[in-house]
Amino acid sequence: MTTRKLTDPSYADALDHATDLGATHERFLLPPGRIYLDGNSLGALPAGVPERVARAIRHEWGDGLIGSWLDAGWAGLADGVAAKLAPLLGVDPADIQLGDSTSVTLFKTLYAACRRRPDRRTILVDPTTFPTDGYVARGVADALGLELRWSEPGDPAAALDEHVAVLLVNHVDFRTGALLDLRETARAAHAAGALLLADICHSAGSVPMTLLDDDVDLAVGCTYKYLNGGPGAPAFGWVTPRLHAGLTHPIPGWWGHAEPFAMSLEYQPAAGAARMASGTPPVIALTALDAALDAFAGVEPAALRARSLSLTDYFIALVDDQCGTSVEVVTPRDGHRRGSQVSLRHPAAYGVVQALIARGVVGDFRAPDIARFGFAALYLSHRDVLAAVEELAAVLRTDEFAHPRFAVLQAIT
Ligand SMILES: Cc1ncc(COP(=O)(O)O)c(C=O)c1O
Ligand SMILES: Nc1c(O)cccc1C(=O)C[C@H](N)C(=O)O
């Protein structure tokens, strides 16, 4: 019996076959000749989006004008999107609210959470968080006269005590790709009398979730990464039904009113999570997101996760095999503790990423020394992974990363 080598294309094909999702890559429009490993920053363009958005603009807006709020279903668009999103998160669509940016949704959600623990004075945040979460937490703390406390990096639950109102965590660490156990963290937060708010930007659409069963209290996430909603796509917030009654947030606008068109002077919050809305929903962006989520049709979250883990396992194995000790894998090797990205440490990581982009392999750089690669299982194959690591090994072997044109940090990725 012959054992196939890791670098044998037929080995990659066998892995593809074992984790087949049914040609879902055909649901995306990707530029030829490029291997896109940055879907953890901005997801690729789903094939159904351009036409759907063009129709919304030309016919629904152009011809239907104001009538499209009802005739084209604009008023209920966010509900339709929530219905497609809910199974990926393990929640009821009625408990999801969409429309603002992640940062704004986080401000409103964190504020609402803190108000549910009026006897507590502290917001606890892990310093490894994506920076906007820390800035927003500071803003909420200032607005409510609370204390912002940083935990030990990577160990937020250990810093819980009787003063903590809300523990704010990132489900997946944006630098390392490490995955937090939300069920365990919720248990620890509740044991200390605190609420758990999870930022699931880097897991939504790649890691199956059971937020309700895991007893998470609140969550926020963006839709432009693994959910492929497009640049600046509307974020979502989720609040467990247990907390709905009496939930208040800082921007109680008319779209969160029980009867917006009653035009009443009195604010009457809508039932449930709908009260978390503020202003008019971004219809064109929601239309793009609605069409984008069709790329998940018929895909079981568990099968998506199995393929994602296979892609990241294969990437790590190839890096070990082809790149030796020139890079350090900083992402957990245990799949249970990993999201859908792999991060490599290298002293010239910026140059490595730029040299790879020049060769058609798109990842990104995070200061000071991390080269980050995201694996969107819907549109990537194991052959893509093999080709990407071949290019990476060549970049490292030839010192291409040290070229002066890659010396100046100037890209937004
Ligand atoms: C964990 C996390 N939270 C929040 C954000 C961004 O928030 P916003 O959509 O407001 O730019 C990002 C990425 O940009 C992120 O990775
Ligand atoms: N939201 C982004 C943007 O508006 C421009 C460039 C990148 C982003 C990102 O999403 C970055 C991403 N959250 C990260 O993990 O670094």
From TrEMBL:
InterPro entries: Kynureninase (IPR010111), PyrdxlP-dep_Trfase (IPR015424), PyrdxlP-dep_Trfase_major (IPR015421), PyrdxlP-dep_Trfase_small (IPR015422)
EC number assigned by the record: 3.7.1.3
Keywords: Hydrolase, Pyridine nucleotide biosynthesis, Pyridoxal phosphate
Pathway stated in the Swiss-Prot or TrEMBL entry: Amino-acid degradation; L-kynurenine degradation; L-alanine and anthranilate from L-kynurenine: step 1/1; Cofactor biosynthesis; NAD(+) biosynthesis; quinolinate from L-kynurenine: step 2/3
Gene Ontology BP, a term: L-kynurenine catabolic process
Catalysed conversion reaction: 3-hydroxy-L-kynurenine + H2O = 3-hydroxyanthranilate + L-alanine + H(+); L-kynurenine + H2O = anthranilate + L-alanine + H(+)
Enzyme type, top EC level: hydrolase
Domain of life: Bacteria
Any single Gene Ontology cellular-component annotation: cytoplasm
Annotated Pfam families: KYNU_C
Gene Ontology MF annotations: kynureninase activity; pyridoxal phosphate binding
Cofactor(s) listed in the protein's UniProt record: pyridoxal 5'-phosphate
PANTHER family: KYNURENINASE
Subunit structure, interactors included: Homodimer.
Functional summary from the UniProt entry: Catalyzes the cleavage of L-kynurenine (L-Kyn) and L-3-hydroxykynurenine (L-3OHKyn) into anthranilic acid (AA) and 3-hydroxyanthranilic acid (3-OHAA), respectively.
Family according to the record: Belongs to the kynureninase family.
Name of the protein this chain belongs to: Kynureninase
Species whose genome carries this gene: Kribbella solani
